[in-house]
Write a structure and sequence with these properties.
three-stranded antiparallel sheet, about 110 residues, single chain
Length: about 110
């Protein structure tokens, strides 16, 4: 059975890169060697692996990568730190729940 990985790298500019691969070790080497000058991580080395998950289904891995790529920075950081309460909080609909972080709300009480 083939194994796939979705991963998050922390770049030296404090940004995050989310990717997908079937060989995590090889892919990390490729990122750090950065031969492709057009790649997002090319000028952001050193790169640190801060999170990964394994999958047996390639379609599930690809869907998860795409989902995480669409997340906010704070939601990715909640995942990385395994703070499930914050991950749920940051997943709530912004329009319905307002900016919970600073206490403002778009709904009337």
């Amino acid at each position: 059975m083939k194994t796939y990985f979705v991963y998050i790298l922390k770049c030296n500019d404090d940004s995050y890169y989310t990717g997908f691969t079937n060989n995590l070790e090889r892919r990390l080497i490729e990122h750090n060697e950065s031969l492709n000058k057009e790649a997002y991580t090319h000028n952001k080395k050193p790169l640190t692996l801060v999170w990964f998950e394994t999958f047996n289904d390639v379609n599930n891995a690809i869907a998860t990568e795409k989902q995480i790529k669409g997340w906010s920075r704070r939601k990715k950081e909640a995942l990385i730190s395994e703070n499930w309460d914050k991950l749920v909080l940051y997943s709530k609909n912004y329009t319905e729940f307002g900016n919970i972080i600073d206490g403002s709300s778009t709904s009337s009480d």
